Amino acid sequence: MSGRGPLQIVTLCTGNAARSVMAGIMLAQLAEFEGISVDITTAGTHVVEGQPMGQRTKAALESVGELDTSTLGLHRSHQLSAQDCEQADVIIAMEADHIRFIRRVHANSAQKTVTLTRLVREISVEEAPFVDRLRALDLQNVSLEEEQDVVDPAGGEQPQYDACAQEIWELCQITTALLVTE
Fold first, then answer.
1. Residue by residue, what is the 3-state secondary structure of the chain?
2. Which pLDDT tens digit goes with each residue over 57-82?
3. By C-alpha distance, which of 31, 74, 69, 70 is closest to 51?
4. Which residues of the chain are modeled with pLDDT < 50?
5. pLDDT at 2
């Protein structure tokens, strides 16, 4: 990345129990494999602080054969804080409602908050620093579309969690490739 240290990424969902956890673990491992320096925080918009990862989330992550799942038991849920937002270079949300939350509660971070799907679809692949390419998306002004949501598996059965993990895995692989283009 730039000479200023690791890229600070926050992955964001509702309860910090499934989607943001999956994305955070996946991005961290993919970035490490590619030699990309990142610090990743996972968080939620409405969290019961300190909860462990659910069994269905854990099983879904284990279903992605390429992941190292040896540290999954370390996760504890975390409510998004002002400090998380301030330190982040990018906040990768799982759905439009999470961006609405940022715009309402942490408005100064709206320009660096994007859904995972929009990030993959719209960020340029030119050789420029990631944060510059992110800034060019004018995120604080984009209209929000629910079809960009990664559907929340909460309340579903294991197949919904596994499908969610597979979708996030594919999106995170593309995201990591976009980080490599610098």
1. CCCCCCEEEEEEECCCCCHHHHHHHHHHHHHHHHCCCEEEEEEECCCCCCCECCHHHHHHHHCCCCCCCCCHHHCECCECCHHHHHHCCEEEECCHHHHHHHHHHCHHHHHHEEEHHHHHHHCCCCCCCHHHHHHCCCHHHCCCCHHHCCCCCCCCCHHHHHHHHHHHHHHHHHHHHHHHCC
2. 999 999 999 999 998 989 999 999 99
3. 74
4. 1-2
5. 42
pLDDT of 23 reads 98
In the chain, where are the structural domains located?
7-180
d(CA 166, CA 162): 6
What was the pLDDT predicted at 36? 94
Q: Shortest CA distance to 18 belongs to which of 117, 179, 161?
A: 161
pLDDT at 1 (0 to 100): 39
Integer Cα distance of 22 and 63 in angstroms: 12
67, two tokens: 């992941």
In Å, what is the CA distance from 167 to each residue of 7, 117, 132, 149, 174?
23, 10, 26, 11, 11
CATH of span 7-180: 3.40.50.2300
